[in-house]
Amino acid sequence: MKLRLSQEDADFREEMRTFFTTQVPQDIRDTVAARRELSKDQVVRAQQTLNAAGLAVPGWPVEWGGKDWTPLQRHIWHEEMQLACVPLPLAFNASMIGPVIAQFGSQEMKERFLPATANLDIWWSQGFSEPDAGSDLASLRTSAVRDGDHYVVNGQKTWTTLGQYGDWIFTLVRTDPEAKKQAGISMLLIDMTSPGLTVRPIELIDGGHEVNEVFFEDVRVPAENLVGEENKGWDYAKFLLGNERVGVAPVGSTKRILAQAKEHAGDRLEQDPLLAARVAELENELLALELTALRVVADSADGKPHPASSVLKLRGTELQQDVTELVVDIAGPLSLASGAADGSDVPDWARVATPQYLNYRKASIYGGSNEVQRQIIAKTILGL
Amino acid sequence: MDFTLSSEQKALRDAVRGLLTSAYDSTETRREVVKDDPGFSEKTWARLAELGALGLPFSEEDGGFGAGPVEVSVVAEEIGRTLAPEPFVESVVLGGSLVAALGTAEQRSDLIGRLAEGALVLAVAHEDLGKPVTATQDGDAWTLDGVKEPVLHGARADVLLVTAALPGGGTGVFVVEGDAATRTGYRTHDGLRAARVAFDGTAATPLGEASDAAAAIEDAVARAQVAYCHEALGAIDVALHQTVEYLKTRKQFGVPLSTFQALTFRAADMYVSAELVRSTVSWATLVLADDPDRAREAAARAKLQVSRAARHIGQEAIQLHGGIGMTAEYSVGHYTSRLTAIEHTLGAGSDQLRVLASSVGEHGVVEPIA
Fold first, then answer.
1. Would you place residue A300 in the very low, low, confident or very high pLDDT band (cuts 50, 70, 90)?
2. Per-domain residue ranges for chain B?
3. B283: which chain A residues are within 8 Å (Cβ-Cβ)?
4. Quick check: A173 and A142 in contact, CB under 8 A?
5. A5 → closest Cβ in B1, B248, B269
6. A72 CA to chain B: closest CA distance, Å?
């Protein structure tokens, strides 16, 4: 057992910290620090800056731009980005479809998509959930029927995050309606400019437009866009969701927002013992989460995830929500000024507090709801 | 950064586990042992000494084995797993740390030497009811007056280490032969022992110099707090495991309890608490070993986390067992009782939170790694 980073890892941390705080454009980092919405252009520029330095997709195979890093180095990379207010590489590209294509795609598919995916020349959207297929994803009904060299796709996807920016969408579609539910599913890559495909925004409780519905009406998709084999889509989806768990506990950004909250509170930390106690308790819970993340990466060097990794999504999103809630409470009545424009005397952080709080109620729902995580812990870890 | 035990540390763990699981092979065996004074097994204490466990953290010069906080944590965790009532943390970690930090060469050699051999039970008389024991000097001689209570294992102790107010201000530590004080022992709710210890012009010897030892006391308390936290980890692991097994085997309405999601989700939350607290407590031990300037902060953080997890898991373990969890015959309630005692020994969660809250504005983010 030892506490300190090795010299090599400490040097690596310094290198990451320097890069993120000096090479990523300041306007982008300022937007993240202010908890304001990033534009498409900012997300693309950030990822392209990282990709030019070989830092966008370290988890991929080395031949496609990945890095031969240790799990601890990947953890440091991920944490330092968050602490430096650098937007993480777009998850749909870097953590979801990229690794699936690298693992299961044909050589042609890899060459066609992987470099453009790493560089965010293609913006991917995710087409998994449907109105009647949420936590029970395998009950999805969007169909793809083979017609010569094409599939004809009909149905509806929903909760498609940032689908308004999407160039391509990776979808789960039913190719064998006779098979039992997981067995008849395939993964299909679809150009979002295809005729018959429409994107409709869903307005959320924070007033923002983050997610969408995507409709498919006789959309013709070339058969070469099938990932891997027909009816094996469920396996690829499980692989994808397994990768999603890496970095699902947003420790660094939650720590940063909690530190900002203390600045906003100012003298009240000394005057209000209840507030100080609440902050101290949150800091301690976050420390426990961060140390658990470190235990997981330190012990998963042999490739198998540590059993405690399932704790990370559950507790990480709870604490993310607790901290957004704290900021609203610190803002107090100023939090009502969420619609104030320039010229308001209410500081920016207080104006965004409630929309952020409302927005992050999503965190315990997406990526496998926290109830699904409890089910996983009970069944696969405790054997219940 | 590494959270795994070395092969020597694993061997130590296996040896202590073997010893304690044979000494306390059932709830009934432990109940028999704690029924009569001194509330633990002198034989098991001697066997822990033969294994080298009682001299682990002390320098070889003083009669110890030169091991560190990680080895201490390994022993404490096994004590917690078996609810062994032997006074390891009280004598070796808290008492021994004070002697090692403050004692003269002669005192160190005598007290630590006997402690490591299993020939000495040390008790630290620190808690009082708001009125400190006072020390009075007359030439070279010192006497103590006042009452300490509760003193864990105070009635059995061969030697008491007593914290007392010095005539010129500050807190000193004094060595008192156990039978020189007036002691009234009793049983605590977790089966262990404590005592009221009264001093009335009682002869005492300063441990080292008769000068303010507040810093050394705080450091020794931090070490003991972290060791208690490891004891709690052992107890938490067993309480969780027993609860999970019970949910699998107990049938109601014709089916195992594990078919009810209302129960399995609560077990999942217990697992989450158990993993989180293990992370913080293991970290605190690494801080003791590697970054002693942060020892008190790390101990406070660990003890706060233990407080939260021990209450959560201890309470849920009983509730998910139902009525059987309330009985003295069945073990799980004893784990909850011990966890409750650990929480309130050397500062409860609320005390730690007060300390941490008072300095919360002095840093930005909390950085675990030096």
1. low
2. 7-120, 123-211, 215-360
3. 3, 287, 291
4. yes
5. B1
6. 9
**Residue A281 annotated to the active site:** no
CATH class of this structure's domain B123-211: mainly beta
* Chain A residues touching residue B366 (CB < 8 angstroms): 255, 283, 286-287
CATH number of the domain enclosing A345: 1.20.140.10
Distance from CA of A9 to the nearest CA of B (A): 9
Look up the pTM and report it. Answer: 0.94
Q: Which of A296-300, B7-11, B36-40, B45-49 has the lowest mean pLDDT?
A: A296-300
Which positions in chain B touch A79 (Cβ < 8 Å)? none
Amino acid at A361: R
Q: pLDDT band at A244, cuts 50/70/90?
A: low
Q: How far is A272 from chain B (nearest CA, A)?
A: 10
Q: How confident is residue A2, by pLDDT bands cut at 50, 70 and 90?
A: confident
Q: Do A311 and B5 touch (CB under 8 A)?
A: no
Domain that holds residue A55: 7-89
Domain B215-360 has CATH 1.20.1560.10: no
Whether A2 and B2 lie within 8 Å, measured CB to CB: yes
The architecture in CATH of the region B7-120 reads Orthogonal Bundle (1.10)
Q: Do B286 and A3 touch (CB under 8 A)?
A: yes
Q: Which residue of B has its CA nearest to A269?
A: B361
C-beta atoms of B275 and A292 within 8 A: yes
A67, A89, A111 - which closes a domain = A89
Q: For B246-278, how does the pLDDT look when each residue is reduced to its tens digit (9 = 90+)?
A: 999 999 999 999 999 999 999 999 999 999 999
Same domain, A137 and A73: no
What's the burial of B214, exposed, middle or buried (CB within 10 Å: 0-12/13-18/19+)? Answer: exposed
Residue of B nearest to A370 (CA): B265
**ipTM exceeding 0.90, yes/no:** yes
Contact A262 B267 (CB under 8 A): no
Alpha-carbon distance A316 to A322, whole Å? Answer: 10
Q: Which residues of A touch B278 (CB under 8 A)?
A: 295
Cross-strand partners of B161: B124, B175
Place of tokens 């009532």: B85
| Closest chain A C-alpha to B247 CA, distance in angstroms | 8
Tell whether A96 is covered by a domain. Answer: no
At A172 the three-state DSSP class reads strand
Q: Closest by alpha carbon to B76, among B355, B290, B352, B338?
A: B338
DSSP state of B310: H
β-pairing, A209-222 vs A197-203, is: antiparallel
Residue among A37, A213, A244, A285 flagged as catalytic: A244
